[in-house]
Specification:
alpha/beta; Rossmann fold; globular
Amino acid sequence: MHLYIVTGSSRGLGAALVKQLAQPGHAVIGIARRLNPALKAEQWTLDLADPVPAAERLQAWLHTNTGWDSATLINNAALLSAPGPLAASDLADLSAALRVGLEAPTLLSRVFLAETAGVPTRRILNISSGLGRRAMAGSAAYCAVKAGLDHLSRALAREAPDVGVVSLAPGVIDTDMQVALRGADPARFPEQARFQGLKDGGQLQTAEATAAAVLRYLQRADFGQNVIADIREA
């Protein structure tokens, strides 16, 4: 049996990943704030803005559920605070975005690495973004989170060379996050027009197509050789 743990599983890319992974021979756990009735997988309703209880639950579960042929952690969850300058951002929103996007993946990766030590094949796939590699005004927290996720991946790859670790930018996906960016006030978010242009130009990928490409990348024989990757360059 092959184990897959996917965060941010209730909608968007996370839900598409869980749907495509839910097949015979796979045990799939989705972690999100809300249940998605369409998903045929075990779902844990946890808020990753409070990541310690989520990490503790995963730790307890992995400690008693063993014998996997492979185990994969996909840190997909992200939270976009309202687009705008950092100085005008809500403190609680910023804290939640940082906890969901970076603290939670760090804690879950720690638990995953410790509790799956005997599994023959292990992978950690962190869903990053081009904004972790190219700064953008009006979204400082999101840029910082994704840059941190890239660097976390580099460090984990050095610490655990027997584990495939990749921080993968999945391209531009037509999700609720894109809706928020297009709907932002241009006076607060200077790049609003660029995101509207991506939609108008038909340049956004569906979550389903992106999930299929991500899972193909996950199964590559050379997974982990390039720790920082972009699905558009694969």
